[in-house]
Design a protein that fits this description.
This protein is an alpha/beta fold and 303 residues long. The protein contains 9 helices and 12 strands. Helix 3 crosses helix 5. The structure holds NADP nicotinamide-adenine-dinucleotide phosphate.
């Protein structure tokens, strides 16, 4: 594209195109099939959510200036990002949905919902007392958008929350990650909401699991790589886990995680609920308005 050519914008839905300001050349590519036209004139690309081809197409967009992903995490895009292309993420758009999922997993695990569902299927009526969420000590690992949304939803459940992030923020009573080992022995429930980075890979390994009290619950709604899954499985149910994200998604057939004692999981669907859709459409409309007006876009990612 010539320097004075604003180029073409690719968006993932008709609704995004309809909301674009007049004068902008906008086309829809849902991530299915081949995108139309000469891909070299695409300057701004809004990648479709949850479509693997939406990411693999990036190297073919040779005139690209900016890319918007609709995920909060962006580690999957970074290796494909050409020099000089700005990256924008969906920070904030997934907070409510993912926090809700974290609460669902915590409550399901504490009140044994998966077991009751199996009992019902098997025609079994087996009443017994369960753990509760009320009265639990919860360690929140990751205190960004999602971590804070989880906390807001947890507090009415009468829990004691301890906050931990990459860097300590003493004014907000947020501990730094260096204090993780000291905090784990006092946690009944650990909730992970951290991005995938070199520092978070294997954040919870055999050593960290060993520090947790018996019967503690590990919840992960961030990225699967933060937990050493083999180490978790080696705990043989001493530590329970409710996971929305796994090391391999889906786990291969026969992977021990399918049948690991005390472990249940959902298929990486924290962000994928109805509430995301209107938020995403409003957000894309605002980004297109800014793009057309030459204003800085929201959510720049520091690569
Ligand atoms: N399950 C799903 O469907 C789903 C949906 C959306 C997002 N996610 C995942 O959730 C992640 C978090 O999203 P977000 O929007 O909350 O991100 P965010 O606002 O950037 O917050 C990330 C938090 O993680 C902390 N952190 C980073 N490295 C850490 C480390 N080594 N140890 C401890 N804490 C660390 C950060 O600490 P500082 O504050 O000190 O930087 C920050 O508090 C995303 O990156 C994505 O991978 C999953």
């Amino acid at each position: 594209v010539a320097a004075d050519d604003p180029g073409r914008v690719l968006v993932p839905t008709e609704e995004d195109r309809a909301a674009a300001p007049p004068g902008l050349r906008v086309e829809v590519w849902t991530g299915d099939g081949e995108p139309g036209g000469d891909l070299g004139d695409v300057t701004f690309y809004v990648a479709p959510y949850n479509r693997p081809d939406g990411i693999t197409v990036i190297p073919r967009l040779t005139g690209l200036k900016a890319i918007q992903v609709l995920t909060a995490g962006y580690e999957q895009v970074q290796p494909l990002l050409p020099d000089g292309v700005s990256l924008y993420n969906a920070a904030g758009l997934h907070d409510a949905s993912t926090a809700e999922m974290a609460l669902a997993l915590i409550l399901a695990a504490q009140r044994e919902v998966p077991e009751w569902a199996v009992d019902q299927r098997d025609g079994v009526w087996h009443r017994h007392f369960t753990r509760s969420l009320a009265g639990s000590r919860v360690l929140l690992v990751g205190y960004g958008g999602i971590g804070q949304a989880i906390e807001a939803r947890l507090l009415p459940f009468e829990v004691e929350v301890t906050r931990l992030a990459g860097h300590a923020r003493p004014d907000q009573q947020v501990h730094g990650v260096g204090e993780l080992a000291a905090l784990l022995p006092q946690a009944d429930i650990v909730v992970l909401a951290v991005p995938e980075t070199g520092a978070t890979r294997g954040l919870i390994g055999a050593g960290e699991l060993a520090l947790l009290p018996d019967d503690a619950l590990l919840v992960n709604v961030g990225r699967g790589s933060a937990v050493d899954q083999a180490a978790l499985i080696a705990e043989r149910g001493r530590i329970r886990a409710a996971l929305d994200v796994l090391e391999k998604e889906p786990p291969p057939p026969g992977d021990p995680v399918w049948r690991a004692p005390g472990v249940f999981f959902s298929p990486h669907i924290g962000g994928g609920s109805a509430t995301f859709v209107p938020r995403a459409r409003r957000f894309v409309a605002e980004q297109l308005r800014r793009w057309a007006a030459g204003e800085p876009l929201l959510n720049p990612v520091d690569k």
